[in-house]
Amino acid sequence: MTSYTSLKESRMTKVWQGRKEGRMKKEHHILFIVYFGLLAVFGYKGVVSAEVVSNELLVEYEENRQAFSLDGSLPGVESREPITDEVELWSFTDSEEMLVMKEQLLEDPNVLHVEPNYERYSHIVFNDPILVKQWWIPQVKPQWMWSRAQEQKKTVIVAVIDSGIDLQHEDLQGRIQPGGYNFYANNSNVQDVNGHGTAVAGVVAAKAGNNLGIVGIAGTFDAKILPLKISHLNGLSKVSDSIQAIDYAIKKQVDVINMSYGSSTSSQLEEKAILRAVEAGITVVSSAGNDATKGNLIMYPASYPSVISVGATDRDHQRASFSNYNSHVNLVAPGAAIYTTTLSNGYKSVSGTSFSGPIVAGATALVKSLKPEATPVEVRQLLEVTATDLGAPGKDIYFGAGVVNLEKLSHALPAVSTSIPPNEFKGDFPELNAQPSKVFKIKFTSDLQLGKDYARHIYITRSPNSTERIESFTAKVNFEDHTQLFITPTTDWQPGVHYLRVDQGLQNEKGVAMKKSFAVKFTVSPR
Known about the structure:
By secondary structure, this protein is an alpha/beta fold. It is built from 10 helices and 27 strands. Helices cover 21% and strands 24% of the residues. Strands 10-11-9-13-15-16-17 form a 7-stranded parallel sheet, with helices on both faces. A 4-stranded antiparallel sheet has the order 4-5-3-6, with helices on one face.
């Protein structure tokens, strides 16, 4: 009996061939206008604008993927690559064949959604160097937060999804989180050759008090940059790489994601990835764009509802002329003539919402370092309610809630607390020794959320305070007793000493967070 799949493919092939034979000879293209920063001024390379013809589609399926064969033999299909469990990246030999296949895909009931693999570009505008450096610090007033560095409750990790990072830069030493990845080349080489990612990283975390260069917004707090590279020399990136980088950041349990890039085309699949990050407790920040004088288009990912969209101001507290403005903008931050790190141990003055975004991302990291249990919604509300209002009273399309103000933010943090029930929510972990296949049980004083993976709150290392975390385990709630958390190794625990910490941000089913972390040292015996 001929399968439904075979009949479907046979019909598709005939339709494909018929349409191809009957097509006019002239080419039809879908053009996407993409603007990206003029990078050549300071040694970066790029162009002002480009028309991008993408021969790639992102295809989202239902759970059953049997509508199309996996042998890659469909007409015009050059390759198919899994992006997530539900999404594939299809590459085509030319745009005409892509258009025909897109129509066929949309006819199949097992296909939920099809969209082009849009390109993204860095939101950056460069100026000539200036003499006055870091004029923005008195405006955002981070000193109030910096004075509280001794109160920091956890190391904060900011994933910078960009062009990589200069691993040897003098002012970023000790600020780079191990485990970054290059999605552009599919390897672990995150060295920056464009400079944009290094500049963004410097705004967030350039080291303070080392007699070198500049000071990032993180100041003296223990903040790390996880470099996730999705673009190379020309600064262009694709939605597929963005999706993979976001999911990787979730796996690495970062606190903040900074996305200083975008275009005017939205992506349902990229938005879903961002929602996964937000649901995992990660605050996502993105630059609003630099096209105010070129149509002032709505930019994505900045304009997704779950993202904090950041516009730029100048030293006079005015909206920077290039900064996009719209109802999606949540906040503004200085973004004109920002002195920051660049390649080869250099420092440059740069402009763009690409650099106002990381100021807000850095402010978010400081909130998470003092209040790890703060949710993305709470972080956004804190930043907006403490911002310095600019323009018309209240929130407006030019400045959002206003320019970020870390002095007011610092004063607000002690007043923002989660109510604790009379019986404090805490856990008890009596285990000290384990066999390689041991499943640890943690008993809590109230129910946890069934079905949630609590692994992001569990830190297992081979030495005290190590940043090299063991990730080959799950942390799931006992189906029969919701006060128990099972920590199960994916394979086996390796012999030797381990250090396990349960983070204080872990919440029970009612959203109540533990007041303090607890840890244990345990030894795994060889078989």
